[in-house]
Structure formats: C-alpha cells, structure tokens
C-alpha cells in the first residue's frame, strides 16, 4: 500500500560504514602513553596497535614484537633506504619508526589503527594522513610527570633530565593536536575512557563516512 504511493523502498544501507581511522597518541616521555595504550588494547581488541621498530636496547621486561621490534641500527637504516618506513625519527638518540606495511595492511582490512609517536612523528603522520586524529596526552603537572619518570626507573638521571627538558619544549606543540587528554595520577581509567569516546565520536563524523583513510600511503 505504502509502496504504491512511495515507489520501491530501498533496503540499501543509509550510510556506508565509516572508513578506518588512524589515531595518533603522543605526549611527553613519562606521561603514560604506553600505560594508556595497554589498557586501551584490553578495552578495544578490535583496533590495530602498531608496534614501533627501534634501535634502542631492550629494557628488562620488554618483549620483542609486543613493546617494540628491536633491530640493529644497520637494519633500521636499510628499511629506511628501502622506503619501508612510514615514519621514523631519532628520539633520545635512538631510531624509532613505523613500518609502512603495519599501517597499510590494517587499513586495507578495514581496521582502525593506533600509533604511539613522539611529537616529531605525530607531525609527520599529520602531513602524510591529514584525516588522522591526533591526541596529546598530558599529566596534571610537570611535577607529576617527573615523579612518574623517577618512579619508572628506566633512565639514569642525566637521560631523565633530557626527557624533562624535551617535555618542556614539546608542550608548545599542543595546539597542533586535535585533542588533549589529561592522564591524572591514579586516573588512568578516565584517560582511556576519554580516548575511547574520541574514537567513537570521530567515527560518527559525517565526512568520514566516505573518506578514504590513508589513501595516499
Ligand atoms: N594515570 C597514571 N597514574 C599513575 N601512574 C601512571 C599513570 N599513567 C602512567 N603511569 C605510570 O607512569 C610511568 C610512565 O608511564 P609510561 O611508561 O606509560 O609513559 P610513556 O608516555 O609511554 O613514556 P615514554 O614516552 O618514555 O615511553 C609508568 O611507570 C606508568 O605505570
Ligand atoms: N617518532 C616516533 N617516536 C616513537 C615511536 N614509538 C615510540 N616513540 C617515542 O619514543 C619515545 C621514547 O620511548 P622509550 O620507549 O625509549 O621510552 C616515546 O616518548 C615515544 O613517544 C615511533 O614509532 N615513532
């Protein structure tokens, strides 16, 4: 009866599924990027969390292929020359970077991708993938940030001081990011919840329904 008045009613989906998202999580050393990402992995196992390759020595407790891919400086440079790295930078004197295939394979499967990057890497990805969502993580104060680095006990004092000095400079990059999330002491759950909310909201943006994430890679 209705169809006689309206014609055929389409059963096609009203909107196409949103294209996969590239999410950048950045912020100064010790702010809690790894802690946030570890918890986000548990909450959102459907996301692809990219594992960085590095020339840095493995710390006690770090696992190959989980925390990093630990490679020699020579191997890292070979990958750079071969064009295999989507992004790379020297961070605190060590090579850090993301293999292109990790991102392109996940996007091709339709999977959202999460990258952990320093501010240099975040700038590179914004340039390569302008539709990426960038999140800058902060601690509630510089004093809290430093106390986390001290408690973590992963660097000798001289190297820790370099990280704190760098953190001061990195704070000036905050306006280049889409979102700022405050990872307050003892409130990791809230920070992770806010990041999950950002991901959900970004995927609902109208323009993303037909955008092609990472098409240019
Ligand atoms: N919300 C929080 N409250 C208390 N401690 C936290 C919180 N978030 C992270 N931490 C702790 O702070 C320390 C630094 O966190 P994490 O190693 O995740 O920082 P990061 O940003 O990944 O550092 P880096 O850039 O040097 O790798 C860790 O010991 C972690 O357990
Ligand atoms: N440009 C990139 N920076 C990265 C990447 N993965 C991690 N990082 C940054 O390195 C520092 C130091 O890490 P640590 O494990 O030695 O403490 C950290 O602040 C990250 O931001 C990457 O793939 N590219």
Description:
With 217 residues, the chain is an alpha/beta fold. The chain has a single domain, classed as Rossmann fold (3-Layer(aba) Sandwich), CATH 3.40.50. Helix content is 39%, strand content 18%. Strands 2-7-1-8-9 form a 5-stranded parallel β-sheet, with helices on both faces. Helix 2 packs across helix 8. The protein is globular. The N and C termini lie far apart (51 Å). Bound molecules: adenosine-5'-triphosphate and the ligand Nc1nc2c(ncn2[C@@H]2O[C@H](COP(=O)(O)O)[C@@H](O)[C@H]2O)c(=O)[nH]1.
Spatial gap, N to C terminus: 51 Å
Structural class of the helices, strands and pairings? alpha/beta
Q: Which runs of at least 5 residues are low in confidence (pLDDT < 50)?
A: none
CATH class: Alpha Beta
Strand-residue fraction? Answer: 15-25%
Q: What average pLDDT do the residues reach?
A: 94
Query: In the CATH classification, which architecture applies?
Result: 3-Layer(aba) Sandwich
CATH topology, by name, is Rossmann fold
Number of helices: 8
Can you tell me the CATH superfamily?
P-loop containing nucleotide triphosphate hydrolases
